[in-house]
Amino acid sequence: MTKKLGSSRGFSLVEMMIAMVILSVSILAMSSATLIAMKTNMKNEVRNTASRVAKETVNDLFAKPFSSLNDGTATRTVQVRGVDKTFTTSWDVTEVSGVLQVELNVQYKIGTAEFVNRRVVYRSNS
Predict the structure, then answer these.
(1) How many domains does the chain have?
(2) What phi and psi values does residue 67 have, to the nearest 5 degrees?
(3) CA–CA separation, 50 and 118 (whole Å)
(4) Is residue 3 assigned to a domain?
């Protein structure tokens, strides 16, 4: 009894290698997308922390008497996902017609890139 060469069932070595290449490329693409998503999530979390630092600074400033508010700076280190991040906050206080304008800048780094979170808030004397 002889078997025909083309009638055997199963995968050939070439088919198996093609499947492995396709699988490898797919896994590589998914791992790359995962790394990009993780970096983006970290950037967003640091940006949200900078916004929270700005809000807390404004609350601290507005807890002081109206007449004692003046320009200043502060540096604060906060842990974000287990990594210490330094936030440098500076503010300029200007009085216009009995209303204080506070320009607040929170500077921080992600890797080598520097970012600034800016906001302007107002406080009346009453």
Answers:
(1) 1
(2) -75, -15
(3) 10
(4) no
